[in-house]
Amino acid sequence: MLLCIHNSKRHDPNIRGALGWLRRRVLMPFLYRSANYIVPVSRDLRQELIDTFALPPEKVVTINNFFDVEGIRRRSQESLPAATEALFANHPVLITAGRLAREKNQKALIDVLHALRAQDQTAPKLALLGDGPLRADVIQRCQELGLRSWQVWDEQPLTEDFDVYFFGFQANPFQYIARASVSLLCSATEGFPMALCEAMACGVPVVSTDCPTGPREILAPKRWLPNTPRRPNGPSLACCCLCWPKAPWTR
């Protein structure tokens, strides 16, 4: 039996509470020890599994997610609707792609945009690709901070007058990502984040949280980095955007 593990288990909400305790202490150790091999998608996830479940190291083999880089680049060149093309052509755009969910931490990106506006910078736009259970919460955060949001679900015309753009699920996210100034990953937990690698394949600068697991291995595999908060706030991410290496929208 071969088990493939795609996400950190230390921060999995499904293994909290009484039922979660049973899964973590009984079911998961039984499954892992019964498997012939366990295949995590990142090196840090491998070490986490070994440490958490006392697994033999030789039984846990890392295989990173793979990507069709040429296919991503080819699809990134496909055209967008005229109004969307104009938005990306006329404004610097920060972009993120992923399910609107707690572990993806998109509410922090709304705080990022708000913090950038307080820095006397030419404020960029923010585009979110994806949908999920936290849609209403993220939209509400926009309202709380006085940011105007355009939402594809409302079927209203897209103009350049908004601050935040919710594009929902897109079968081809690469045509959006390739036109952005910076791609952001603000997750609280990952495995080996595909969105980060896909943005890099599109040739777009990236800024990421140092969450468990994956971003550190992708962006700085041989460098020592200080420990950082698992769920950083908007101002700290905004600082990264401004300092990397120079805010692309001020060039």
Number of strands: 8
- CATH top level of the largest domain is Alpha Beta
Give the biggest sheet: 6 strands, parallel
Order of helices and strands: EHEHHHEHEHEEHEHEHH
What structural class is derived from the secondary structure elements? alpha/beta
Residue share in helices? 25-40%
* CATH architecture annotation of the largest domain: 3-Layer(aba) Sandwich
Query: Which term fits the overall shape?
Result: globular
Distance between the termini: 53 Å
Mean pLDDT: 87
Strand order of the largest sheet: 5-6-4-3-7-8
**Uncertain segments of ≥5 residues (pLDDT<50)?**
242-246
Please tell me about this protein's structure.
The protein has 251 residues and is α/β, with parallel strands linked by helices. The chain has two domains: 2-59, no CATH class; 71-250, Glycogen Phosphorylase B (Rossmann fold, 3-Layer(aba) Sandwich). It has ten helices and eight strands. It has helices at residues 17-34, 43-53, 69-76, 82-90, 107-117, 135-144, 174-177, 194-201, 215-219, 234-243, and strands at residues 2-5, 37-40, 93-97, 125-129, 149-151, 164-168, 182-185, 206-208. It has a six-stranded parallel sheet, sandwiched between helices. A two-stranded parallel sheet has the order 1-2. Strand 1, helix 1 and strand 2 (37-40) form a beta-alpha-beta unit. The chain is globular. The chain starts with a strand and ends in an 8-residue tail after the last helix.
Summary, kept brief:
The protein is α/β, with parallel strands linked by helices and 251 residues long. It has helices spanning 17-34, 43-53, 69-76, 82-90, 107-117, 135-144, 174-177, 194-201, 215-219, 234-243; strands at 2-5, 37-40, 93-97, 125-129, 149-151, 164-168, 182-185, 206-208. It comes from Hymenobacter cellulosilyticus.
